[in-house]
């Protein structure tokens, strides 16, 4: 069984139609020292691109754009479908402190309106357990990352703040700097006016 290279960052990249001749679509590694990108798979002909993925105990758990919850072995990257979730997964993070996969989802209510949720995902069955829902993407995490000691950091949709997820009260709390000010992250296109 192939092992993960601890000296590399792993990423899943979807090609950018705005870039001429961009064929980089699939799993890549990025060397931490040189930033050199190495393509590991060519997923150009996969039916669905991945929307979220997380490494847990030697396996990669992921969800694709067809809402399929899948598991893969690093290095092999063969997609083994567990179940179709029936909702889109925007992001996922595994919290080692409580041994739980947390996901943010987007689905629709019975009237066809968008419905977002923060949920847990059972890694064996694919069962989703909703923790909190909202009809707005602005209220819940859009992207998340968990530390080894159980702190889940998050960003919200179209928001430059950095937050932690309070799992007990199911709210997002601003991360503060040493002066007590909310930390703001800024996204830039690289264009200079």
Q: In angstroms, what is the radius of gyration?
A: 18 Å
State the share of residues found in helices, binned by percent.
Answer: under 10%
Q: Name the shape in a single word.
A: globular
Structural class label: mainly beta
Across the major sheet, the strand order is: 4-5-6-7
Indicate the low-confidence ranges by residue numbers: 188-193
SSE series? EEEEEEEEEEEEEEE
Contiguous helical run count: 0
Q: Give the termini distance in whole angstroms.
A: 50 Å
Main β-sheet: number of strands, strand sense, barrel status?
A: 4 strands, antiparallel
Overall mean pLDDT stands at 86
Please report which band the strand proportion falls in: under 5%, 5-15%, 15-25%, 25-35%, 35-45% or over 45%.
Answer: over 45%
Q: How many beta-strand runs?
A: 15
Observed structural traits:
193 residues; mainly beta; four-stranded antiparallel beta sheet; disordered C terminus
Structure commentary:
There is one protein chain. This protein is mostly beta strands. It has no helices and 15 strands. A 4-stranded antiparallel beta sheet has the order 4-5-6-7, with no helix packed on it.
């Amino acid at each position: 069984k192939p092992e993960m290279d601890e000296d590399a960052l792993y990423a899943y990249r979807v090609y950018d139609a705005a870039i001429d001749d961009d064929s980089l679509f699939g799993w890549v590694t990025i060397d931490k020292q040189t930033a050199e990108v190495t393509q590991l798979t060519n997923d150009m002909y996969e039916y669905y691109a991945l929307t979220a993925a997380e490494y847990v105990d030697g396996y990669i758990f992921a969800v694709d754009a067809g809402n399929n919850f899948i598991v893969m072995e690093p290095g092999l990257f063969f997609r083994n479908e567990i179940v179709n979730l029936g909702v889109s997964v925007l992001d996922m993070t595994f919290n080692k402190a409580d041994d739980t996969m947390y996901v943010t989802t987007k689905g629709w209510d019975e009237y066809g309106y968008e419905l977002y949720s923060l949920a847990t995902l059972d890694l064996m069955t694919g069962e989703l357990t909703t923790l909190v829902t909202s009809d707005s993407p602005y209220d819940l995490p859009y992207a998340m990352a968990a530390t080894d000691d159980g702190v889940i950091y998050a960003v919200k949709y179209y928001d430059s703040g950095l937050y932690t997820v309070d799992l007990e009260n199911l709210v997002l709390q601003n991360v503060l700097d040493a002066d007590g000010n909310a930390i703001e992250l800024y996204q830039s296109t690289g264009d200079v006016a």
